[in-house]
Fold these 3 entries.
Entry 1:
Amino acid sequence: MSTRGASTGARVRAARTERGLSLSALAAAAGIGKATLSDLEAGRRNPTLDTLYAVAGPLGVPLAALVDDERGAVEVGDGDLTSRRLHVQHDDDVTTEVYLVRVRPGGARTSPAHAVGAHERLVVLSGTGELEVAGHVVELAPGTQHGFAADVAHTYRCTSRVELVAVDVIRTPVRPPGDVERPQRLEGSWGTTLDSPAESE
């Protein structure tokens, strides 16, 4: 049992309990096996990035609420994508997370839907690729940025011979335990349809 795995598991269990969800209910909502969730909560396995996002969505919390940040920057990754958290800020109505994202050449990764009302803004530093959200696809190139609603599945692809590197800013509305109402879109909503580079803020 790793210290990080145990810490993450405890946070998942606490969030689930606060929301009155059973293991079966959360596992079904997250699209993972009950045994997988049980092992995660018990700290018997280190969850993948996909699993963390899959669980965070139904719980209505940002990734930062589940990952221990006491040691500074946290890096998680599996397969084609690595994400390193650079900063997290908790305000009364929103949690803002900043990540450095890397997608290996030729790689692709589909991220599960984040918490309801979550938005992302991706700023490309190097490499080229594609971002697909709700059937909309935009090209990624150095210096471009794109905002989108992240409470639906979205895919990052690297189409260059070098890795795609980007800064990803995720804003998640604060949702009190037991709140089942769909939160209002954040002020300055980036929308479900992807921005074009010219429209980016």
Entry 2:
Amino acid sequence: MLRVTLLDNCGVPITGEDSAQSATDGFVSVEFDPQYQEGQEYQQRKANGGRCVDERGFSYLRWVNLTVQLCTLDTDVVNLITGQQPIMTGDEFTGTVFSDRLLDSRFSLELWQPVGGDAVCDPDGQQQWVYWAFPNLSDARLQSGTFE
């Protein structure tokens, strides 16, 4: 199961009339690619050529690139992650109007992955799940595709 929740500019879920959330099991995969900044290296030699300082600072996570492959083009999810204008038919989203607006829409993405192997079920026989949360995403881009 995958759930997308609309956030405000500060990364807080929007509540009330402007809130938006969509859940689907219609995805094939979610690939994540963490981007790290390597720690700074510090080196200093003594006058005799020996090592005085030879250390490296800690690396840190800058961001995570996500690639989500959907089974079908889910208009609710596309509108939430891109912030583009929805096409409405009555109260239903039926499409998206794409424009040249900034990709500044913020959203969270959560995944529930079924546990496999010997730990599939808890002692009560219930399916166990691994929960993944990507709590404050932006700059969502659709990849190229073909309509056939």
Entry 3:
Amino acid sequence: MAEGIVNAPEEFRGWLLKWTNYIKGYQKRWFVLSNGLLSYYRTQEEMTHTCRGTINLAGAFIDTLDSSNFVVTNGPSQVYHLRALNEVERQRWVTALELAKAKAVKTLDFEDESGGEDERGGSGCLGDTFLVGLKAKLKELTSAHDVVNKNSLQLLKIISELEEGGVGVGTGEGGGGGKAPSSPRGKEKLGHFKAAATALVKAAQEFVVQAECTERRWSRALQHELSARAQLQENMEKLAKEMHGLEAEARRSFPKEEIGPLPLPRQDSVEDRVIPDGEDVADNGTTEDGGDEEETFFDAVEMSNDELTKPKSVSKFRGKYLVCYPIGNTHIVFHKSGNHYTWNKVVTTIHNIIIGKLWIDQSGDAKITNHTIPGEEANIKFHAYSYFSRERQRRLTGSVTDESGKTHYVLKGHWDEAIRLAKVLDGEEKTATLSEFELAWTNVPPKPGHEAVYGFSEFTSSLNEPEEGVAPTDSRLRPDQRLMEQGNFDEANKFKQKLEEKQRSKRRKREALAAKAAEAAAAGDSEEAAMLEKEATHVPLWFQKEYDPLTNTMMHVYKGGYWEGKVRGDWGAEFPDIF
């Protein structure tokens, strides 16, 4: 049974069954929830020395499967399939996890806002903390050196007295009262001890000197880095303000009718987000017969799509930039070769949100896995933009490996220009003999006027054309979108505000129901909590959430109904009122 700790109300602990593998199945584990972290141990005694695993709830997802099973995941590498003893126990754990997650997210947001107010000040505090820690360590080493030096001097003094003061070190005939000669063995031991003590003192002195030099070198390097960063930040802000002033002056210099109405923010449908991926894959992804070569070309095509796609993501606004963390994985199956691939998107950062020219950067690691051929995968690294790097920006590198870890292909290039690949002829990846790099993908110049359609390709733009027989929830039926395309910007903006307020009210209603469900669960009314939780949870019409064994995550799987309704021309009366 789970039990709350009286002295530590933010802590929750108890026994749960955790899925281990297909041989052992569910095994009993001791779980501890504390400070936004969920950790588990084999026994309670292990808490003092061995932690078997920990999940940070700030970025975790908690899914309830049935009356006793639930899943806690923080990415493909951390998935806990858990089982409680009964439904009441499961609800207590889920409620505690949700509350801990909400608190962890709130704390994280507060730290991000505090850290984002003054990036230079934050870096300075970090550098000061590092220097303070280094100086404290140096002080400890100096004290230890003084103690060793003092003791060594005393020891050497005693040794000299033993040798010269008439005290026998070994066994001799006159060892009773007068000066007795030392034995050869005693002299040898004393010599060894003196040499060891001298070497110890010398090593300690050298270490202290080296630590002092290192501390001074690090201090100078850090001060130089902070000074350069502060200067660069100041120059960038001045330049952004000047550009903003020039744009404002240009707008004041021309009549409003010559400038035209200001466009509304971009409105993406699901098709708009997905089609840039599918377009290149459909055109180029099936030209190879299969195996490593197919995966290599597919890697290049897919990585290029990060140039223009906007994935489903969790976003964090940092004041000057917006960071989008993509959620989930994407599946694709090539019918010609039968290969089934999955991959993840990398992090997208949008800079100059407030002032200046907007620009986008991609960073992080993408992993593409071929589930048809065991062990075949590609790892692509998007190198983050850096003001101090000598390399050309927007760079990516990667490789394709087999089950044994052997590299067959290497990739390099820039995700906004071109990507090239080469076959590994012999040797390891870093010291391998490669074939000539050949072009795998190149950026296609946009069509004239692409700025007016948000940089979409011609094919993607054509998907926004009205079509008869679409579902009532299709984004092409949004009245504000049609009004905007017809040039009625004022009416479109008014309708857009009404639509957004309608969405916010629905969200607030669900949040209120979820809070009531948590209160009911805390009060021990599991039936009422389950009913409120079900009412607060959105249920898709054509998809259901299932566990994906390939990626070890939860995903939405199509359950049917859309294409059948489109063929019949009858969508029924189950549609939510979203417009």
